[in-house]
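Q: Please design a sequence for this.
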């Protein structure tokens, strides 16, 4: 088979065919005899069944695949093997040098929140955690002291007794062996294997002393079957994910893993299954995120009114799934311009997010300069707002204040349907099938040509459009009590686990 460095996809193919080719290649790659022998050695050394490594490897490869070029990152090339080896050895010694020999007291929690990487993220969980008596947050950054959290600071201060006791030299020689096998196969296995070792070291240290009934996170591209195994090894019951995004073929949502998956709607998990995700049980509950930031807030009179609001975000290399993707993404903004040129009295706005990169996209900004379209990428901050405590106005507020809403692929389109607010998904040419396949379920909410868009816009604007033909629960359930729904599911699951 082709080496990772030589594998490439024809971006003229549909996202479905590209995904089939990529996943088929990854499946064959992890069965290579050299890689299997390395996994087998890891399994024996750490007493972890081999099947617990495969999902992590697949996801690692997927996260290092550049959709915009149809190729894996150059880090897998032979020439990078030397750099990877010495870098990984340096990190390994860093972990050993910064080891803490102090035995930590075992602490028990009802729930542990994992993978917080920014101080603002934890506010999404703030009200949810009030349902639990004892909770813990695993964070890569310092948080407000009112939160009970463990700071994972670049592998410093880990107790390595459970992961590397009597293994430190063995692991060093194992990494050297990986290096020479990489040279022999002319494929850089070093980063793949060290990713697994770092996962073991991190979570063996954390979960051996901080034990929870449930583990929850929102990032699907950092989910891990290996982490799940270690969590359960020390007494954890289940790992959980909640849906925040629409799954994308060859993108976010691929190879996701957890015991329990809390989906937006009755059918939104289907795209995840197409993306080779694996869940023990799926529970439609509505939007965790919207429950966190939308309800129980005062209305804000300073939010402007628009006839049409487009919920937008910048498209990056990992979303650029086919040769016409960026052209189609730009074309949908051109539809807004055409509509505005034909109807100059309409107030049309593109709503971005702070720091999402739209302002630096030259093709996008040039389109704006030659139009009457408004653009907003800031939130109105209310006086007294502290620590981004979700008192500020969000895109939900702007969308609900607009007469008509549209988007390219924002999850908010599904969420708005739960509030009985129509949202038009724009898909010029019907080619954005990595996110929105051309099937009965998705075709009900999207348009593929300008005339269909204009007709639907005026139907909604003139209140001649009804959602009766659509089962909105298929896209997103009512979300005001999503946190409570999840809590009750976990309570019942715990009872049934006894």
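A: Design:
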């Amino acid at each position: 088979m082709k080496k990772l460095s030589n594998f490439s996809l024809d971006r003229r193919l549909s996202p479905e065919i590209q995904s089939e080719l990529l996943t088929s290649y990854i499946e064959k790659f992890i069965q290579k005899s050299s890689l299997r022998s390395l996994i087998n050695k890891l399994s024996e050394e750490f007493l972890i069944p081999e099947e617990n490594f495969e999902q992590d490897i697949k996801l690692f490869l997927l996260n290092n695949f550049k959709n915009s070029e149809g190729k894996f990152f150059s880090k897998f090339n032979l020439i990078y093997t030397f750099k990877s080896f010495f870098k990984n050895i340096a990190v390994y010694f860093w972990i050993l040098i910064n080891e803490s020999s102090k035995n930590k007291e075992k602490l028990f929690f009802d729930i542990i929140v994992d993978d917080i990487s920014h101080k603002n993220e934890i506010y999404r969980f703030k009200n949810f955690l009030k349902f639990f008596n004892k909770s813990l947050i695993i964070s890569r950054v310092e948080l407000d002291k009112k939160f009970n959290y463990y700071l994972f600071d670049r592998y410093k201060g880990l107790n390595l007794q459970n992961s590397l006791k009597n293994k430190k030299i063995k692991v060093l020689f194992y990494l050297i062996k990986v290096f020479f096998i990489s040279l022999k196969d002319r494929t850089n296995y070093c980063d793949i294997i060290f990713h697994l070792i770092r996962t073991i070291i991190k979570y063996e240290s954390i979960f051996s002393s901080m034990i929870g009934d449930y583990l929850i996170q929102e990032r699907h591209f950092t989910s891990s079957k290996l982490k799940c195994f270690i969590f359960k090894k020390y007494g954890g019951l289940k790992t959980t994910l909640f849906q925040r995004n629409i799954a994308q073929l060859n993108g976010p949502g691929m190879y996701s893993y957890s015991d329990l998956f809390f989906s937006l709607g009755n059918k939104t998990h289907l795209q995840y299954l197409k993306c080779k995700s694996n869940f023990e049980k799926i529970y439609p509950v509505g939007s965790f995120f919207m429950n966190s930031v939308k309800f129980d807030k005062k209305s804000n009179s300073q939010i402007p009114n628009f006839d049409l609001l487009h919920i937008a975000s910048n498209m990056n290399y990992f979303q650029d799934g086919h040769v016409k993707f960026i052209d189609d993404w730009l074309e949908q903004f051109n539809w807004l311009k055409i509509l505005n040129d034909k109807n100059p009295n309409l107030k049309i706005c593109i709503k971005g997010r702070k720091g999402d990169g739209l302002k630096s996209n030259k093709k996008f900004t040039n389109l704006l300069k030659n139009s009457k379209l408004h653009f907003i990428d800031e939130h109105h901050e209310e006086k007294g707002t502290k620590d981004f405590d979700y008192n500020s106005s969000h895109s939900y507020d702007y969308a609900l204040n607009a007469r008509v809403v549209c988007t390219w692929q924002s999850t908010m389109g599904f969420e708005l349907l739960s509030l009985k607010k129509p949202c038009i998904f724009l898909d010029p040419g019907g080619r954005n099938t990595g996110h929105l396949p051309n099937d009965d379920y998705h075709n009900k909410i999207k348009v593929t040509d300008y005339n269909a868009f204009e007709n639907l816009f005026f139907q909604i604007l003139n209140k001649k459009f009804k959602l009766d033909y659509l089962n909105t629960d298929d896209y997103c359930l009512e979300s005001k009590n999503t946190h409570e729904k999840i809590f009750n599911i976990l309570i019942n699951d715990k009872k049934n686990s006894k």
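Q: Thanks. Anything notable?
A: Residues 382-392 have pLDDT under 50 and may be disordered. The radius of gyration is 24 Å.
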